[in-house]
Design a protein that fits this description.
Layout lengths: L3 E6 L12 H13 L2 E6 L2 E2 L8 H17 L5 E4 L2 E3 L2 H9 L10 E5 L9 H10 L3 E5 L5 H5 L5 H5 L3 E5 L9 H12 L3 E5 L7 H16 L1 H17 L5
Parallel strand pairs: 1-2, 2-4, 3-5, 5-6, 6-7, 7-8, 8-9
Helix pairs in contact: 8-9
The structure holds fe (ii) ion.
Fe (ii) ion (FE2) binds next to loops.
């Protein structure tokens, strides 16, 4: 299968906990292309206090890599967005148009800390929708509150959130609890799309095995929807006004 669109990947070098060097960036992109990805969106962390990246910083790093990617003969097309840590600072940037939504401008990737959801997060998601942005929630299966009862995601879905599966959760990369949560959410057809969340070249093998597992669980047509059709639609989504 080809034509996959990766909505979440840390391939830009030396900007967060992803690729450390340009060679690693190129190895990741080549590896992802080899296993079926034709489009890979860079989503470096924007997380104040940990990865102090703002939009202009990330745009400069991406521009600096674009020529290297072109010269490196990489077969997939690349784009820039960001994995927005959902604190007050980054929320403000999203609302004011100072963040990095997906290229169409109508959806943005957000993540939480592992142990608890932010307070009143569903209200903040409504605010995002009013600002024209659909929140795409990174790896919901990896948040601790979801392990005991995934009904905690319902208010977020009601507020317009799209759930983005990290495929490697399906093969135990993060442990048994996220794996079980991912299987349950898949069964419930709760995911809008799936992604690699790859951080290093060595992750590609894991992603490949995980896509095979995904296909075993849901079949070829649903795998294509999760990794191709739906991510493409989110990538092209225009602001909802
Ligand atoms: Fe990530």
């Amino acid at each position: 299968m080809r034509g996959f669109v990766d909505l979440h990947c840390h391939w830009i070098a030396a900007i967060d906990d992803g690729a450390r060097t340009v060679d690693e960036s190129l190895a990741m992109l080549r590896g992802l292309h080899d296993i079926g990805f034709d489009t890979v969106v860079a989503t470096p962390h924007m997380r104040p206090g940990m990865y102090d990246n703002d939009r202009s910083h990330l745009e400069r790093a991406y521009l600096a890599m674009q020529r290297t990617v072109a010269e490196g003969g990489i077969g997939c097309s690349v784009h820039l967005a960001s994995e927005h840590f959902f604190d007050d600072v980054v929320f403000g940037r999203l609302i004011r148009g100072e963040a990095l939504p997906y290229p169409g401008g109508g959806a943005a990737l957000v993540e939480f800390g592992p142990a608890a959801f932010p307070l009143r997060v569903q209200h903040r998601f409504f605010d995002l929708r009013r600002a024209g942005l659909a929140p795409v929630l990174a790896h919901p299966e990896r948040y601790e509150p979801v392990w005991s009862d995934d009904a905690c995601l319902d208010p977020l879905i009601d507020a317009g959130a799209h759930l983005l599966l990290d495929v490697c959760s399906l093969t135990g990369k993060y442990g048994r609890a996220p794996q079980r949560a991912a299987e349950k959410l898949l069964e419930d057809e709760a995911y809008e799309a799936a992604c690699s969340d790859a951080h290093k070249p060595g992750d590609v093998d894991h992603v490949k095995r995980s896509i095979q597992r995904l296909e075993e669980l849901v079949g070829a047509a649903e795998t294509r929807r999760l990794l191709s059709d739906a991510p493409l639609a989110l990538l092209r989504a225009e602001p909802v006004r």
